[in-house]
Design goal:
CATH topology of chain A: TIM Barrel
Strand content of chain A: 5-15%
Radius of gyration of chain A: 17 Å
Oligomer: heterodimer
CATH architecture of the largest domain in chain B: 3-Layer(aba) Sandwich
Mean pLDDT of chain A: 93
Number of strands of chain A: 9
CATH superfamily of chain A: Aldolase class I
Order of helices and strands of chain A: HEHEHHEHHEHEEHEHEHEHHH
Mean pLDDT of chain B: 95
Low-confidence stretches of chain A: none
CATH topology of the largest domain in chain B: Rossmann fold
Number of helices of chain A: 13
Distance between the termini of chain A: 37 Å
Largest sheet of chain A: 9 strands, parallel
Shape of chain B: globular
Chain lengths: 279, 406
């Protein structure tokens, strides 16, 4: 639902701080733990949740998210179960926007129409599908928009001013600025470069701009949040989950609390971001 | 199978978005889109540039050794007692396979684009060797991604690449084969977009790769057609080639697609049998999906997760196929059939003993199909097969399977 996303961004902006977007992989390491993690996120200060859809061949992801996907698939996670996690979460939380993030093939095989119907019923607000550039908008983007589900596009340092209008054309919800050319989990570039890039994108759109890829600590979140409308944290959360597991990859008592503690810290980071900008 | 529609030509694809029917396209991350569009623009200019064509032809003749011979396999023909069998001898090319045709073309493009670093993926190592070769020839650093499993079973090619100055990076993710190597190469490309050229080895991936690689490989079919007319005064009745990603096959098929009298067969890796999971028969036993930048037939489960294939031949061990093959199958112009590991192994030995040619395990699959079909055809009929690579790299694999110590 586009409305829930727009409201959340407007409310947080009114608080004078950037939005904290948190990513984790559905089904990592198992269905129930995933659901508990998802329920814990808003309480720890997450404003928007990106729910990763595991894929066997995640070409734009680094080793951390790749392994998380493999753990989830090993635990028999499917797209249907990922939607089920969202649906169960929605029973208690009708306000936190949920964005599904992943690759196109599992959706294509599920069937685009059936997927959009089920996603809407599960309370999904937006989609990020890494391997669907604007040239492929007829596949999923246009049908999703028609159903009222946002299609959030990635903009990257290679997206120059000539290409930006095309990238932004059918984008809704927010723009996800990928802070560098690379895969998820790489090192964060200089925040001043990012501020420049965010400004460049904002010259082309009224949508909020969130920055991700490489944001790992509260300090990063604070620095990036000084210029961006939102900060996306993914690999750091996925690593936190991984470090809490047993050698066999099973969840422990530390898994959910570990994520909570990390996100609480990140949340404090974004909440002090505009203060940082004003300093 | 669908009825073949009444088309003016089977050679008109892809459209400007890179589609062959529903197949092909550009399913890549946004970071790569500007690069792919640049590549397409450069390719469009280069393919009509007489200077580019002349340089390609010159290197083809003096560096690769083109044209490769068309060879009448007299003893094999007599043994099978049916159709006359001709081989297009791509295994005689410099570096030992058809892969070099594409590598020379793409490195000339990389040079035109001012790129200073080459990356490639490889399965059997033939494309890796060809990439390392052209990188050495043009003085560019080269990184080759190769599945860890393949590094082990294709040791001679790994050594060749290293001798040629390339850095071979073993990929342990997934099952450590060609698809995982391709994922890793794409990750490298996304990270090093400014200076790096991704030299894809097969007629798959995002547009314009399937079209471009096909056009660089079509020299095989163009030569074979002329050579066949010179030798026999007519076109062959049947053209056969092995299909992994499908570059050698599309190379020999494409010039014959509009010749109605020519039947065309692509041979997939049937592995240990297409009933289970241990095969790479994407068309015979797969379904349409999206991977590595294009929509095509894939081996996948009901949730759209890509399966690990299996083949005796590392070069066919890929769970997808070039999008033009997927389309040629659906419109009914080309027939795709599986050949099992053991049949390929038998064909490998047959050719070695009867003709004194050690074929690679990839074309051994095509050969096994030829061996099945030739006896059922008339003596006045002609088969053309693409002998796409030589088997030196496979002798250790074959030795192990035959229980012969080396």
């Amino acid at each position: 639902m586009t409305a829930r996303m727009d409201k959340r961004f407007a409310d947080v902006a009114a608080e004078g701080r950037p939005v904290l977007v948190t990513y984790f992989m559905a089904g990592d390491p198992d269905f129930e733990t995933s659901l508990s993690i998802m329920k814990a996120l808003p309480k720890a200060g997450a404003d928007v949740i990106e729910l990763g859809m595991p894929f066997s061949d995640p070409m734009a992801d680094g080793p951390a998210i790749q392994l998380a996907g493999q753990r989830a698939l090993k635990g028999c996670q499917t797209l249907a179960k990922t939607l089920e996690i969202a649906r169960r979460f929605r029973e208690d939380d009708q306000r936190t926007p949920i964005v599904l993030m992943g690759y196109y093939n599992p959706i294509y095989i599920y069937g685009v129409d059936r997927f959009l119907t089920d996603a809407l019923a599960a309370g999904i607000d937006g989609l990020i599908v890494v391997d669907l550039p604007p040239e492929m908008d007829d596949e999923l983007c246009i049908p999703a928009l028609a159903k009222g589900i946002s299609f959030i596009r990635l903009a990257t340092p290679t997206t120059d001013d000539r290409r930006l209008p095309k990238v932004l054309e059918n984008t809704s919800g927010f723009v996800y600025y990928v802070s560098m050319n690379g895969i998820t989990g790489s090192a964060l570039p200089d925040p001043s470069l990012i501020a420049g890039a965010v400004g460049r994108i904002k010259a082309h759109t009224n949508l909020p701009v969130c920055v991700g890829f490489g944001v790992k600590t509260a300090e990063h979140a604070r620095a990036i949040g000084a210029s961006a409308d939102g900060v996306v944290v993914g690999t750091a959360i996925v690593n936190q989950i991984a470090s809490s597991l047993t050698e066999e990859g099973k969840a422990t008592d530390a898994t959910v609390p570990g994520v909570e503690a990390l996100v609480r810290g990140l949340s404090a980071g974004v909440r002090s971001a505009r203060l940082a900008a004003a300093e | 199978m669908n009825q073949a529609p009444k088309l003016n030509s089977f050679r008109g694809g892809p459209d400007e978005d890179g589609r062959f029917g529903i197949f092909g396209g550009r399913f890549v991350a946004e970071t790569l889109m500007p690069l792919i569009l640049d590549l397409q623009a450069e390719w469009n200019k280069a393919k009509d540039d007489p200077a580019f064509k002349a340089e390609l032809a010159h290197l083809g003749a003096h560096y690769i050794g083109r044209p490769s011979p068309l060879y009448f396999a007299e003893r094999l023909t007599a043994e099978l007692g049916g159709a006359k069998i001709y081989f297009k001898r791509e295994e005689l090319n410099h570096t030992g396979s058809h892969k070099i045709n594409n590598c020379i073309g793409q490195i000339l493009l990389a040079k035109r684009m001012g790129k200073t670093r080459i990356i490639a993926e490889t399965g059997a190592g033939q494309h890796g060797v060809a990439s390392a070769t052209v990188a050495a020839r043009f003085g560019l650093p080269c990184v080759v991604y190769m599945g860890a499993t393949d590094v082990e079973r294709q040791a001679p090619n790994v050594f060749r690449m290293k001798l040629l100055g390339a850095e071979v990076k073993p990929v342990t993710a997934g099952s450590g084969t060609l698809k995982d190597a391709m994922n890793e190469a794409l990750r490298d490309w996304v990270t090093n977009v400014d200076n790096t050229y991704y030299l894809i080895g097969t007629a798959a991936g995002p547009h314009p790769y399937p079209e471009m690689v096909r056009d660089f490989q079509a020299v095989i079919g163009q030569e074979a057609k002329e050579q066949m007319l010179a030798a026999e005064g007519r076109l062959p009745d049947l053209v056969v080639a092995a299909v992994g990603g499908g570059s050698n096959a599309i190379g020999i098929f494409h010039p014959f697609l509009d010749d109605e009298s020519v039947k065309i067969v692509g041979v997939e890796a049937g592995g240990k049998g297409i009933e289970g999971d241990e095969h790479c028969a994407s068309i015979t036993a797969g379904s349409p999906g999206v991977l590595h930048g294009n929509r095509t037939y894939l081996l996948q489960d009901g949730d759209g997760q890509i399966k690990e294939g299996h083949s005796i031949s590392a070069g066919l061990d890929y769970p997808g196929i070039g999008p033009e093959h997927a389309w040629l199958n659906d419109v009914g112009r080309v027939e795709y059939v599986p050949i099992m590991d053991h049949e390929a192994l038998e064909a490998f030995q047959t050719l070695t003993r009867l003709e004194g040619i050690i074929p690679a395990l990839e074309p051994s699959h095509a050969l096994a199909e030829v061996i099945k079909r030739a006896p059922k055809m008339g003596k006045d009929e002609i088969i053309l097969m693409n002998l796409s690579g030589r088997g030196d790299k496979d002798i250790f694999t074959v030795g192990k399977l035959l229980g012969m110590g080396l």
